[in-house]
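Collaborator request log, item 7. Partner lab (contact: R.S.) asked for a structural prediction of Cellulase family glycosylhydrolase to inform their binding assays.
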Amino acid sequence: MRRPLIDVAGNRFVDADGRQMILRGVNLGGDCKVPWPDGGTHLPGDFADHRAVSFVNRPFPLEEADAHLARIAGWGFNILRLLVTWEAIEHRGPGDFDHAYLDYVAGVCRAAARHGLLIFIDFHQDVWSRMTGGDGAPGWLFARLGLDFTRFDAAGAAHVMQHRYDYARAEARQEDRYPMMSWSRNYRLPANGIMWTAFFAGAALTPGWQIDGVDVQTFLRRHYLGAMAALAARLADIPEVIGFDTLNEPSPGWIGQPMSALQLAATREAPIPVRAGPAWTPFAALQAAGGSRVELPVLAPGPDGAMRIVGRETANADGVPIWLPGTPDPFAAAGAWNGSARDPQVLDEDFFRRLDPDEALMCPFFHEVAETIRTVRADWLLFAEMNPYQFAYGRGFPADMPARSVNASHWYDVDILWRKRFDAEVDRATLRERYRSEIAGLHAASDPRGAMPRLLGEFGIPYDLDQGAAYAAWANGARGESLWDGHAVALGLMYDALDALLISATQWNYTATNRNDPRIGDGWNQEDLSIWSSDQQAGGADGARARKGFSRPYVERAQGAIVAMQFDSDSGRFEAEIDIDPTIAAPSVIVVPETCFPGGPIVTTDPGARWWHVEPAHRLCVAARRAGRLRVTIEPAVERRPTAAAR
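Returned to partner:
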């Protein structure tokens, strides 16, 4: 039996030679959430064609794959978090898989392998599905569960760009109709509450909710895992595919929330953030789903930042039910409330607080995913995710995780993400330490025993900072790296923190269809975090945005254990220390991107070590014969000109 290309040893990634490995890569790509070619949220649509869509050519047509993948590998990345969605595989109907898409994904993976890139598959979702404001699950599920997604907007059950946007208006963004980043409010709206609660807790909370002779949770999970198994079978013979993500940023639904008590802040039991605007409870959501008008308190932050009630708002003013005719409310049938439109009453305030969301719900789910993929190929790693907000409240991964699981949690500088501003004159040392502390704290909270390898599955920055100032400058003829100096500073500080912590990571994201248009961006809900855009290819450029922030050296493979590594973006000096294990015959490998070392590297090592430069792979190999500490210093042969990103 062959040894896997990547495995885990304790809390480290190791390669087939036993070398510790750092994985650095990118998410591919942001537009994989929507169908090809006209599924982007910048285009109007009502999802009526949800069974006929195709995701073939997301992230790009296969004939364009080599150009994109060579570029990604050339920047020094060695792994892809490749986005797929449940909808992309099973959009036509239950068990009716899109085999053309499965073959296409296999084609992308084989192309990536040709360029030396490893891959793990991310089954992606945001707020459940496209019909509920995000992406992920297929549309036919709603009718099978007794829901009519065509009524979600009228009932206020989902906040969807295609329903809220006025596409005839000229301005690129419409903050009055669809505020920036507002898609996330769906997690507390009725449609998401129903679907996520059913997915994770339907068997325990609503056992009478039966579909095809099984409870709703079993029905949903059977199809989700069936889609995963179908893709796994297509990829089983590609060694460079090293594993599967469990499910991107899963929501707990209503689990942990009181039935009717208003939440003014997230809690340990219910960690989804409470945003300004109408405040939903499960009780209000269930009433609205049944076709009742509901009065909601409206929240806004006070002077101290805490949420307070500032008014009232009517939801579902027209009394539109989202349950299909003849479908009884399964939560009422299970005893959560009386289901009455005239005199609604809570029957069990703690209905959604009966279960431990981590041990009772997430732990079995992780084991189901692991069994699904490892039935196909036993060596696959499990890239595990939980709801990212819960780690701030001391809730982490269950103790009984499947073997060879990876902590694939996400982190963002939420201030940059939400405000879309960054001051390049910030105190770099202070911000670098904040990033290091936050990322370290995330992993300490999520896996306090440090039992799993750590890979930061998502992090990144918006490129439309400061009202798209860089795009305006580009449109006016500005060129060169200095255009992205502020972006490069922010990214560089994030990578500094990752280096200090010796953490693997996949940056969000590379979108092949990205445009410098605030309405388009990555093609999904006006997000724009792609490190590449075709708009940046003018004049023979390679399309990179802020390349100096993310294309940088790191120890990819260590002939033993990595002790430390750091990169000074001002001088271009990279330093690494490795504890050598002389029983490992293969050398250490350090990524030396041409961006950082345009004239080649100048290398200094301890006596007794031998090094050689491998081109065009942009790798430096260093071999040591004896145990002990190996120090390697690499500097550019051509003197670097400091930029604002480096000063």
